[in-house]
Fold each of these.
Amino acid sequence: MSLFPRSSGILLHPTSLPGPYGIGDLGRSATRFVDLLAAAGQTVWQVLPLGPTGFAESPYQSLSSFAGNTNLISLDDLVEAGWLRASDLADRPYFSRRKADYDTAIRYHDEMLSLAYDRFVTNPDDRAACDAWCADPERWWLDDFALFAALKEFHGGRPWVDWEESEVFREKQALGAARVMHSCRIAEHRFRQWVFYTQWDRLRAYANGKGIRIVGDIPIYVAHDSSDVWVSPELFELDFNGRPHFIAGVPPDYFSSTGQRWGNPLYLWDEHRTTGYRWWIKRLEAALRLVDIVRIDHFRGFDRYYKIPASRSTAQGGRWVNGPKIDFFRVVSQGLGKALDELPIIAEDLGDDLGEAIDLRKALKLPGMSILQFAFGANESEQNRFLPKYHEENSIVYTGTHDNNTVLGWWACESSEDDRRRLREYVGKDRVDEPHWELIGLGMESRSHTFIVPLQDVLGGGASTRMNKPGVPSGQWRWRCTPEEMEDAPWERLKALAEAHGRVPGTGER
């Protein structure tokens, strides 16, 4: 079977699922969403990074590249496991159904997970199952992450560079003492990771059993305040105190007139090359144990990356530097035991001034991305690669991504009259009343082998349902759908389009 058969699916992060506990989780709403996808002939579910969130709850600023976000643990499933009681969940705070209330939800989940852990430890069989999972060599990262999480809590959430000097520099005696001092909390973090992975593996198996592949997402960079950088500072461009000399981002672009200053530390690519890219191989192996296909965010960074002095307050004034290029993928593919053209990777090849990133993607035969919202901002004679008539078959087409406005938000707030005229001319209509369905239709009929649409666009959500606005540091990642919206979405309309354009298994394009 082809790695990328002609198909379609939905982009929806689990935090956006309905549920009574402040954010979506991996329980009943997730399996119900899978059922609805399958019934609508959709065979792809794309999610954002699944790691534990740090700064501003961005899934792209995770505390670990290997751990899971335990706030996604289904509390209802913990009742079924016998570690919580229904009465424990009855007295919960008020939570909005339409916006994730992270502060309150995280405090509540922490309280309930600790209560569940207190009951878990009294069951020898449960403890044995958890211990066996933790002892698997695949969990080589777990003890360091659990210690990192316990120390971060002990220090009031402060970044690791602000801890005790002996802890910052991981002195053996200090870490040994910390493991003893925080042994209970470390054990609880190990338990939480076991529960997250157990629930996620069950959900993924359920989705796969319904014929749905899960597309995951890994940011090219990791957060500075993460166990990744704390444990392996030699792999990153840091000063003697562990702070970045330079940071990642992009120059001024479509999303921001001053560029995007992400703040992530940059890799010491020569050091990674010396180790045979061992850390990266482990990172991709871990990602592919979670999902079926991985989208690499900011793929262009492997060709060249933007280097911003950490002292600057904006992304202006940085410079481009060469990345590891194709050598990286040759070594990594060998480490993963796959041929270059068999890598289950999607390359996010978006942005201005891409250099040779597109050539690199094509040399690797990786699918790139086309964004339909970008298709109507230039004259067709310029061969705007986002226009459907220029789409490559080996690509993923989207109405928009998590960083875009919704189609209706774009249409009302961001598109020009020329943009709207070009769309009307392209679809051959004098008037467009449902721009979101026009773009969904264009995506479905595209020659791109895969079409993915954010659930907000299927629902016809406006700008208030946007997931993220790049360059805005707070108030993002909060959108949630209600149970009624998920159930009553126009699934049959979506299915009819997918069938008409050969994106449902067993159908050919009509």
Amino acid sequence: MTTKQRVIVVGNGMVGHHFVDQLVAQSNQQFEITVLAEEPRLAYDRVHLSEYFSGKSAEDLSLTSETYYQSLGIDHFVNQRVSEIDRSRKTVLTNQGKTLEYDKLVLATGSFPFVPPIPGKERENCFVYRTIEDLDLIKAAAEKCKVGLVVGGGLLGLEAANALKQLGLKTHVVEFAPQLMPTQIDVGGGRQLKAKIEALGVSVHTEKATKIITDGESCVHKLEFADGSEIETDLVLFSAGIRPQDALARQCALEIGERGGIVINDNCQTSDKDIYAIGECALWQNRIFGLVSPGYTMARAAVSHLTQGEVIFSGADMSTKLKLMGVAVGSIGDAHARTPDALTFCYENPEEGVYKKVVTDTQQKHLIGAVLIGDTSEYDHLLQLHLQKDELSDTPESLIVPTLQGEPVNPADTMADSSFVCLCNLVTKGTIVDAISAGCDTVDAIKAKTKASSSCGTCVGMVQNVIDSEMAKLAVEVS
């Protein structure tokens, strides 16, 4: 009788849960799996965390349950923070005094919010935006506040600002960089995004370095900035970026990157071959990947290595499409045109609040990046051109300038069945086509059947494109 290998997963996030799902699906019960969750609940959907403020409950956001884990024979513990790893004995010790042995250890510890070292950051009504418990604290405090302020104008910062606005607070966003979302979009896109968000009633302040937080006169706090200006607010929410949660790896002397992060190879192994790291805590080729899709890819690579498969992690596409306070934003590939000799082509319509840019190679043959603000209708088509490395059949500007575009193109029409529609769950167009043939003719039905669009949600539009394309072939009118 073969002895089962003991696998301990440290972390209750989406990536850790995906690893467990994949290992269960592919291991044929050859592992004993234990999940250790630091939070008081098992994995939940952090991508859609803001929906907690618009009516969704913790149960609605949940990705699993104790019943589900029990049915699979998975041991699981909540409120169990791992405080120590003993690599020589191959044990972990939790803050509750529990010692567990492992054969393989998976660190899916994610990241923690970066709070700038600003004097006064520990004052009352100063929060971070990361967990359901954080949101409960923010919601309770907001009931006694009139003004809220977010330090950080990146993706998470704007999500947080939207949450404060939904709670009925007059909302400010303060960003150190000259523009909003500096990681994902360029200066032109940042300018248009700022205009659209301010039109929704949120005050945006860029190029602001917070010097100190002190007592306010009309509000609880006053933020003083390096340029001499100041803003008063009742509530401060820090969303100034993330840092890899690598404290455990440091404690047990695993290799750490110069600026943090647990160093991994293509199999997601750390400097200890029996310890893996996946998700935002992991550093691959000196890069941290802050989206859920790359974390899922890492999880699959680690599972593959554990089960003698051939899947490796070789990087990930960081393109994203989302809506921030109702403003459509899309970023694809090299959005900042950092590739040597890259060419950029821009279209801007201030009256309609639209900004679009495509980036090509020097021969104008291949799309290597794009930015879309206010209108992301071309996103799916541009993403496929980028991912498939298709040669452009027309001029680059024809991709974004309305008067040059001609008839709308459904990108699914020319997409190969083997192409991935959902990168999070590796769902191909062919799989979706098969589901449509089996009677699934809505995005929700496809999601339930294939898991496509069930994670980050970026591919919802592309799933609909495939449905429309297949229905058109069947001469069915789609509402």
Amino acid sequence: MNSSPKIFVAGHRGMVGSAVVRRLRESGCDSVVTRTRDQLDLCSQTAVRDFFQTERPDAVIFAAARVGGIHANSTYPAEFIYQNLAMATHAVHEAYAAGTPRFLFLGSTCIYPRLAPQPIEESSLLTSELEPTNEAYALAKIAGLKMCSFYRRQYGVLYHSAMPTNLYGPRDNYHPENSHVLPALIRRFHEARESGAESVTIWGTGSPLREFLHVDDLAAGAVHLLSLEDPPDLVNIGSGQEISILDLAQRVANTVGFSGEIKTDPTKPDGTPRKLSDISRIRATGWKPEISLSAGLESAYASFLEELSSESIRSV
């Protein structure tokens, strides 16, 4: 890459993309290219082709995705597989066709099998069945990362992928049904505190173990990977630490200031019983997480309150 690369960040208005843009600019990159959904429909191959042929970026960080929690994935599987597959295939191919030499594809650790050995190594990919509640999303992301790998192998372009664990932070989606677990908990406990509710009920048994990473740590990892001359085809990005959903709920309640009872609802699905990523591969390249869960939750709640007061909160 040249000394002042033009970098296209796809999905810059989302939680991940906005964090990546912040990190790039903090790192001194003064040529960040972005497009809103209205300006560039990534599901349209013609629109994507025209964009790449016109802009010809030096690198792409692909953070665009249709995302959601268990409820959204289970309710809209057709939209999840179509939109994510279309965006990935169009972007990877048209970037290559336009001569873009570098492409970092961001996915999720939900690409791994439901019962993968813990912590999950990158080699676990496609070794057994996926988690049914997010299979559509996972299949689309697997296709995207495989495209990057195959284009790198066949054409010699530096296309590679990173799979983040569960993310949270500024610009998260706080929809009461379609969001991921941590932002959903922040909103529910905040509203319970505001209303004076005596209890909050969380989905499932509360026993599943999950790993969480602040989105600013992910952004640092993405920019780090883009600086490597020979990055691995695929790396996990996570905190390397896990917590049960019930314990997480208590941590969020404490952060928000809710002192009522926390109840579980075993009639709701738990999802994957445990999901901890092995991050030794990316650690070996020189990156490590910096933001603790306690500090991250305080930061995330402060961002939530700021977005709520400015009426800029995402709830889609």
